[in-house]
Description:
elongated, 34% helix, 3-stranded mixed sheet, alpha/beta, 3 domains, 9 strands
Amino acid sequence: MILNAKARGFLKQFGAGLAAANGLDGGEESNYSSxxxxxxxxxxxxxxxxxxxxxxxTVADVDQLxxxxxxxxxxxxxxGRIADGRFRRNxxxxxxxxKLVETDSxxxxxxxxxxxxANAGSEEEFFQRVTAFTTQTNAYxxxxxxxxxxxxxxxxxxxxxxxxxxxxxxxxxxxxMPETQHNLTVTLYVTNPDNMTAEExxxxxxxxxxxxxxxxxxxxxxxxxxxxxxxxxxxxxxxxELHKQxxxxxxxxxxxxxIVSELSVxxxxxxxxxxxxV
Length: 278
């Protein structure tokens, strides 16, 4: 399958953007090659002919990652002579066990699929599909409460990679879930706030702050709906949870609208809670 011109152009832009995002030199993104089945056969033959040593190695395609290879027959001359009867020589039967392990891994997309994606939508949609596919080789860690620390990430990667708790030949890299930062101001409207003591106001603002921070995964004091990747965080739902928990609040207002997240979890950069009269 030859990569079509539209997919080739999209891949060039994707490669340049990926290199720029990671602070790397994009190099030459226009060099592509294709390998059809007949060309693959010719390449294998050329590799075997390139060195006499390679011809001494038996290479066989197998269907399973592990198993047994049984060799029937014995090389050498089968001639001889005995005084009585017919000369015979036993046919040798030998074998060995094998177990294959991948030494490298990559996220592979067929060129025919890339061409279909390129023709199915815009450049942005093409980038989203390629990014969604390639990120499946990564595991993003997200805690119910608190941020994912680097020592925790290192411990998980050590458990999976070094200790071998992964699938046969798998290559999995764990990292922290990407975050987006948001500044939020919440205004609480209560009846006769002047009649509230300083302690009551402080308790109200502290409780509301802790509930909101629970929703944004900063603590686990309240059982509320939390922020998630690839979802919409509804402030109207958060308002219902605040009304249910703090009946003194008559109404409230948020400085932000709903947060629609991609591959990231919304976090609070700042939070301000103020109390006003109805």
